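G., before I forget:
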Amino acid sequence: MRLNYPGTIRVVRVPCTGKVDVLHILRAFEKGADGVYIVGCLEGDCRFENGNLRARKRVEQAGEILKAIGIGGDRVKMYNLSSGEGTKFAEFAVEMTEKIKELGPNPLKKAKEKMAA
Amino acid sequence: MIVADKKPIEEIIDMVKDFKKLLIVGCNECVTVCEAGGKKEVGILASALRMYFMNEGKKVDIDEITLERQCDHEYLEELRNNIDQYDAVLSLACGVGVQFMAEKYFGTPVFPGVNTCFMGVTEERGVWSERCQGCGQCMLGKTAGICPISRCAKRLLNGPCGGSTKGKCEINKDLDCAWQLIIDRLKELGRLDDYEEIIPIKDWSTERAGGPRKVVREDVRL
Amino acid sequence: MSANNVPSRLKKILDAGHLAVTSECGPPRGSDPKAIKKKAEMIKDHVDAINITDNQTSVTRLCSLAACIHLKLMGVEPTLQMVVRDRNRIALQSDILGAASFDINNILCLSGDHQQFGDCPQGQNVFDLDSMQLIQTVRLMRDEGKFLGGDAINRPPQMFVGAAANPFADPFEIRVPRLAKKIAAGVEFIQTQCIYNLDKFELWMKQARDRGLHEKAYILAGVTPFKSAGMAKYMKNRVPGMDVPDDVVKRMSGVPKEKQADEGINICVESIQRLKEVEGVKGFHIMAIEWEDKVPEIVERSGLYPRPNDL
């Protein structure tokens, strides 16, 4: 299909979204990511039964932690699609990028600069 | 196992906000199984605290370690050589571990990172419930293997009370009436007649009421 | 039924074979004794003894013991309700002696509602003893003149020992064994939970008779008049351990609002009439919740007036 999606996104492949842990999400922010989203299979269609459901819960958990520490809970999101929905993959990428642009950069970046100065 | 629950991160932040070098110590036993204070939870909390302090413009060093247990000397001793580097310790062990840490490292402030709840079982992933209050004189043999002290809201030794409705406790529709469970099981065991035996007034002196408890076993002491 | 000579008027009436009538009053949420005296004044000529509730539904109130003393000083016979929720064995025994020092001769041993229902849901509970063990304690103090610790009591309490029974709570199969257990613990009279499901009560009573329990303790049938259809529905749906059949709710809802109170009294009187015929029912416990002024009417219309006064 050769669809375009924003080049600011770094894709990290995992065998199943169930492999993604809260800690992975948090570490991404610690290292400067402005947003993290997980794209899993459709709910009910997980090959490992509930990997994507676990992922959703972990995304929610990460969101709560990020909110509590002042980074912002809206910077993480869970998406689902089927393997035949390449266009959706691109749409999610655009949507998430727009959202992050709206929220601005990860506040840790500014904090780091300040501390360095 | 001892079941603990996570503390709100805001509460943890409030406890440790004035320290510059912090050690978060997890425990590989009960709190790992109930997903409140194992290695993974230590990692998550450390990451969250690092980001929080950075965002606040504070320079705080946070290290992580998870010990095999925090309720035994030999594992806690692993911290001996490094403990003085830290301004404070945040222990994700149960209240037992937190206290043993504080006893051992007398000059180091120690804070609890979890709320210790009870002795219980994993009913299913993410659901834990109480089974024992450590009364010191087990009477499960008289109550068909179901403990009225830990599982009846009124710890009635001769229940059920009048509030037992459709097998549930009056205080919560989701809570099984312990005495219904006892009766069901007595019936299953063909021992319903045992129900009419009055359980005598309990000696609570081996329970919390008798003051802090201690077990001394000369047969195994060195 | 029991050979002791506890100077309880309630006991004497029952021993003499009369149908006893008791009622109950809740103490006020304050220190003014007028409220309790007023309630007692309303009903004292129509009942043999008045229960004073002990922080019922775990809402903090003037204590049962003090309210019983007020009644005693008025010449009315009180029944001290005592729950094991709030006091350990030291306090329970101490309060029993305190009551005995005022010659309060009836006690009702209860577990007490869980504190979660009251105004101090964050409070501790005690439950050092349970209601069964409280019965044993009072009997020990009275019959053997001993404290739980084994020491002798100087002037032991003289108390007629009662307990509650709920024929409707679950599981039904142990309701009668539970009664038997309370009797084995030493209970002498029983006041039952409010009876609306008369069929079920009769079944319970039959099972009790089959074991001869009706001859081992006096069973007073509990009744509570509905003030409104709303109250009937509330009792049916919201009060744990309460059994209100649909037809009773329907009957209350079937009359216009202004007549519902009268209908509630009618149902109550009819229930008493029917229960009088049940073998083993030795009296009635009329719990007119915040409606004490209706007790005389219920007693009179049920043919339970005048009360025996030659004892």
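The mean pLDDT of chain A is 94. Chain A touches chain B through 18 residues (CB under 8 Å).

More on Monday.
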